């Protein structure tokens, strides 16, 4: 439910339906060649770049912090099913499409991080109290909800208007993407019909110039 008029404008802007009538969300937008190409290229850059974890010895000297738990997570095995490249690609893709990327930080009995579990950004809802503390409400695939604190979540924020929630490029560009989707659909339909009109008007008499 909404409380007009304060929430009405925000409610309308957040709908996936564009002015062209096409539904624009992250999944549908990725079917557009331009969007897919941009996301593929942009997500591939951090996925293939090395991520160094260093320890400073002095002002001029650094060494690999191989004994630090985060070193193993970022360089070798973030979790049991992804390589570091796959994990970074997923996080960057979420950041590009939804403005935020989240990973749950699992810790061992000593409190050291031992796994980064990626979370779908559209299932995570961050909030901040008056003291600046951030909590995250995560809804799993089976509908189970869990509350997480800042220490339990790795949160990457893209372009933001409030300092907490990243801006979804797809949401703000939905009119442009929606128009492209509608034009593509119209063109496909026209060619499927052999570029012939779907209806013909027949008049029983001869039609004059007027």
Task: Name the features.
3-stranded antiparallel sheet, 210 residues, alpha+beta
Largest sheet: 3 strands, antiparallel
Tally of alpha and pi helices:
7
Mean pLDDT: 82
Write down how many β-strands occur, each being a DSSP E stretch of 2 or more residues. Answer: 8
Query: What is the terminal-to-terminal distance?
Result: 54 Å
Residue share in β-strands: 15-25%
Label the overall shape: elongated
What structural class is derived from the secondary structure elements?
alpha+beta
The low-confidence runs, each spanning 5 or more residues with pLDDT under 50, are: 1-5
Helix content: 25-40%
Can you write the helix and strand succession as a string? HHHEEHHEEEEEEHH
Radius of gyration: 24 Å
Question: Which strands sit side by side, in order, in the main sheet?
Answer: 4-3-8
Summarize the structure.
The chain is of the alpha+beta class and 210 residues long. Helices cover 34% and strands 20% of the residues. The chain is built from 7 helices and 8 strands.
Explain the overall architecture:
- By secondary structure, this protein is α+β, with helices and mostly antiparallel strands.
- It has seven helices and eight strands.
- Strands 4-3-8 form a three-stranded antiparallel β-sheet. It has a three-stranded antiparallel β-sheet with strand order 5-6-7, with no helix packed on it.
- Strand 6 (134-139) and strand 7 (145-149) form a beta hairpin.
- The protein is elongated, with a radius of gyration of 24 Å.
- 18% of the residues are buried.
